[in-house]
Amino acid sequence: MNEAIKTLEENLKNETVVIAVSGGPDSMTLLHLMNSLKEKLNLSLVCAHVNHKVRSESDEEAAMVEAYCKENDIIFKYMTIKYYNKKNFHQDAREKRYAFFEKCVKECQAKHLLTAHHGDDLMETILMRIVRGADFKSYAGFSEKIVKENYTILRPLIHYTKKEIEAYALENKIPFRIDKSNESDKYTRNRFRKYVVPSLKAEDEKVHEKFYKFSKLTLMYEEYISKAVMESFQAIYKRKKLNIEKFKKLDELIQIKIINEIIKINYPKDLDLITDKHRRLIFKIIMSDKPNQTVSLPNHKYAVKAYNDFYILKEKSKSAYKIELVDKTTLPNGKSIQIVSKATDNSNYTLKLNSQEVKMPLYIRSKLEGDKIEIKGLNGRKKVKDIFIDEKTPKEERDLWPILVDSDDNILWIAGLKKSKFDKQKDENYDIIVKYL
Question: Which residues are within 8 A (CB) of 370 and not within 5 positions of it... i.e. 6 or more apart?
Answer without folding.
Answer: 383
